[in-house]
Amino acid sequence: MSHSNADPICNTSDNTHFQDVLSSSLSHPDRRKFLLGGLGLSSLALLPGCVTMGASLPPPPSALGFTAVDKGLLDNVILPPGYQYTVLHATGDALNTKTPPYTNLGLETDDWSGRIGDHHDGMDIFYIDDKGQYSDKETLRAVLCVNHESSADAHFLHPQGQTSNGVNGKKFSQFGDWDLGKRPELEALKEINLHGISVVEIHKTSAGWRMDPSSNLNRRITPQTPMRISGPKEVIEAIRQQLITRWDTSGSMSRGTLNNCGHGKTPWGTYLSCEENWAMYFQTHANSNLTPNETASRKRYGLPFAAVASGVQKATGQGWHTVSNTDDRFARWNLAALGANAEKDFRHEANTFGYVVELDPLKPNETPAKRTIMGRLAHEAAVCGLPVAGESLAFYMGCDSRNEYIYKFVSAATWDPKDVGAGLVAGDKYLGEGRLYVAKFNADGMGEWLELTMSDPRIAQYGPFKFNSQADIYLNTRLAADAVGATPMDRPEWGAVNPRNGEIYFSLTNNSAANRTPAKVNAANPRAYTDVDGKKTSGNPNGHIIRFKEIGSRSTSKAFAWDIFLFGAEEDGGDANVSGLKASNSFSSPDGLWFSKATGICWIQTDDNAFTDETNCMLLAAIPGQVGDGGKFTVNNKMMVDGSLQTGSQDTFISATLGEAKLKRFLVSPKGAEVTGLTEADGGRTLFVNIQHPGELSPPVASGRPLESTWPGNQGVGPAGRPRSATIVITRQDGGLIGL
Ligand code: FEO
Ligand code: CA
Ligand code: CA
Fold first, then answer.
1. Interval between CA 578 and ligand 3 midpoint (Å)
2. Which ligand is nearest to the CA of 542?
3. Which residue owns the Cα nearest ligand 1 atom 1?
4. How many CB atoms lie within 10 A of CB 44?
């Protein structure tokens, strides 16, 4: 979803910035020089006990092979000459043969659990062999998992938009204030169930990849789908008390998943779906008799504290709880302590969200698992480092809000390739026990993984929140990361792992003027400036992509070397255009990131509202080098702060400049959309891409005013009229490799 209104800054800890980073740097003189210059990371990787990566893959290409797409504001998917797309599925499409076709007029009377969800986001493909089993090799039959992130465009799902039946009549809200009228049950059901995950069988036909609505593998995971709370026994025992609800008084199950954003694919062949902005769906109350710990936790996770005005409780969330106090499908969205104890109400319901969810795409009747020990965050994605037999697995995860952190989970179990295809049994093995770390980026170009453990006195004796056990760390991970002094970043979005060398990339999509000024930058978040034209936003409005390499390429390493791969910028951005972008590859607000195993291309997707005066959001192709291939760089910052010009400079480390041959704009999206989710098939000859929330800035449908976008209906795909999120399938007309 677009985050213009949806990324509250909840990190008020003082884990900052320049002085900390500077003193840390001084305590490790020349560490980076030693590691990158003297001995060199590539040499390190060859030391005994270290591993080499990606040896079986062809080397990356030296240049991209397509003509860059111009910036643009058209209401269609624009591709380079010689490329074409079809729509695989779009919001509301039936995923079984019983559900009626989509009207695109809001006339559906079913509860949406038989339809493709809305706001397509993270996505991955799971191939099926001729015995019907999971295959880690490509075949012509697969299951595609797609996350459905948000109900921010829910007005498109109802005949006259969202209604409340309240005193204000048809009041429209996007995560705003309801007037405490009673929302219609069908509206609420559609809005709840449009979230979650679509699991859909697809086949390669002579006309390309097509969805199979008759497959018994097709499944909707929604916010109603029962899930088990998983983790080490002692953690589960401790955590249960804080997960008890009227729906499950044992606290061992959770109902459904929400705001599923980025994703991950495990080496054993399961899908990880990440719960991101779950905090905004709940009704809270001013007087909830919270303990000091509960108050600190709710604040840190951005759970709203609804005020009472003129004796009336102000409303938050989507108003779903207003449908019924007794039907748990609706009552659960109210966090008020209405009953005598936690077994009588839903005061703990928010504790059941914020996790990485694992499911086996080939087992439609199996209960998914919430992996508590990967932490509770605004989880953006969970990407696995390159698996090495006999070594632990590492999963890298971002927490998507301003000034949040990057995390790593390291499995206790070491990788055994025989577990490929073992489903959630393997999931329990690798994601059931391990260690959780948070990243600290130092000014010398090195970084540290700080373990989140009760044996660290900074956590055990933390003032703002009392951690009583390791379970508290998993439930309140942001607070534990505050305690150890992690580096607040410019909103960590997706991560991706370069399959050729194991390096890890993270999008830092942007940050606001409140957080970044020339006086409030650090080496890993070094820019603070005012956009030169058009929208004139300030802070780090165009974002950047950071990358890092574990020392020795080990999943268990406690240290890494980092540099900044790319800085988003307008081509006329002056000093802010550190990466030397031109009109053919200028971009803003990187979000989705994904590497093609087939071609080595790093695909970059944007979710922007700083460059949108000149161009819709986009997908770019990049051919990366490696950490350390550039060098030290001094960023010159210039920004209007409180009406006066503030300047400053910040030293950082940047990659070698890619230039126009190695970084090109490949796709420009329809109006109002972000580009998100990406995977490939046919050895890199087919690319699946998600287009999310076209027409996001449309007026409410009830207004009758023109919509910002009418894609894909305007291309003759599905019923015309309202815009719809979709998965598109991109191929080359000559059948060649995408991007080369
Ligand atoms: Fe769901 Fe961070 O985008
Ligand atoms: Ca601009
Ligand atoms: Ca410009």
1. 15
2. 2
3. 261
4. 18
What tens digit of pLDDT does each residue of 332-342 get?
A: 999 988 889 99
Whose structure tokens read 């986001």?
121
Residues contacting 78, CB < 8 A, separation 6+: 69, 72, 667, 668
Q: E strands along 400-473, which residues? A: 406-414, 434-441, 446-451
- Please state whether 237 falls in left (phi above 0), alpha (psi between -120 and 50) or beta: alpha
Cα dihedral angle (447, 452, 453, 458), rounded to 10 degrees?
80
Is 28 or 151 the better-scoring residue by pLDDT?
Answer: 151
The one-character DSSP state at 115 is: B
Ligand 2: distance of its center to the CA of 186 in Å?
Answer: 42
Summarize pLDDT for 550-599 with one digit per residue, the tens: 999 999 999 999 999 999 999 999 999 999 999 999 999 999 999 999 99
Answer whether 351's CB lies under 8 Å from 243's CB.
yes
User: Tell me, what's the pLDDT at 89?
Assistant: 98
Report the predicted TM-score, pTM, of the whole model to 2 decimal places: 0.94
For 297, phi then psi, to 5°, come to: -65, -50
CA distance 240 to 285: 23
Place of tokens 């161009």: 615
**CB 686 within 8 Å of CB 720:** no
Tokens encoding 469 = 């056990």
How would you classify the pairing of strands 226-230 and 369-371?
parallel
Q: Cβ distance 120 to 107 under 8 Å?
A: no
Contact at 8 Å (CB) between 337 and 45? no
Pocket of ligand 1 (CB under 6 A): 1, 149, 261, 276, 380, 400, 493
Task: Tell me if residue 423 falls in helix, strand or coil.
Answer: helix
Give the separation between CA 260 and CA 272, rounded to whole angstroms. Answer: 10
Rounded to an integer, the average pLDDT of 658-677 is 98
Angstrom distance (rounded) from CA 655 to CA 547:
9
Task: Please check whether residue 262 is in contact with residue 121, taking contact to mean a CB–CB distance below 8 angstroms.
Answer: yes
CA of 380, closest atom in ligand 1: 2
pLDDT-derived band of residue 7, with 50, 70 and 90 as boundaries? low
Atom of ligand 1 nearest to the CA of 262: 1
H helices of 410-476, in order, are 423-431, 457-460, 470-475
**Under 8 Å between Cβ of 629 and 656:** yes
Tell me how far the alpha carbon of residue 213 is from its chain's centroid.
Answer: 28
Tell me which residue of 575, 576, 558 sits closest to 567, measured CA to CA.
576
CA distance 74 to 536: 22
534 alpha carbon – ligand 2 mean position (Å): 4
Atom of ligand 1 nearest to the CA of 259: 1
- How far, in Å, from the CA of 404 to the mean position of ligand 1? 13
Sign for the CA dihedral angle at 573, 574, 576, 580 comes to positive
Distance CA 711, CA 556 (A): 46
Q: How far apart are CA 564 and CA 319, in angstroms?
A: 42
The residue ranges of DSSP E strands in 173-330, in sequence order, are: 196-205, 208-211, 219-221, 226-230, 253-255, 260-265, 271-275, 308-309, 312-313
Tell me the residue type at 582. K
- Measured CA to CA, the distance from residue 93 to residue 113 in angstroms comes to 11
Instruction: Give 565's contacts (C-beta < 8 A, 6+ positions apart).
Output: 505, 544, 545, 546, 547, 622, 624, 655
Total count of residues recorded for the chain: 740
Rounded CA gap, 618 and 673, in Å?
A: 9
In terms of pLDDT, which residue wins out, 30 or 56? 56
Cα distances (Å, whole numbers) of residue 341 to 250, 306, 325, 510, 669: 13, 21, 16, 42, 50
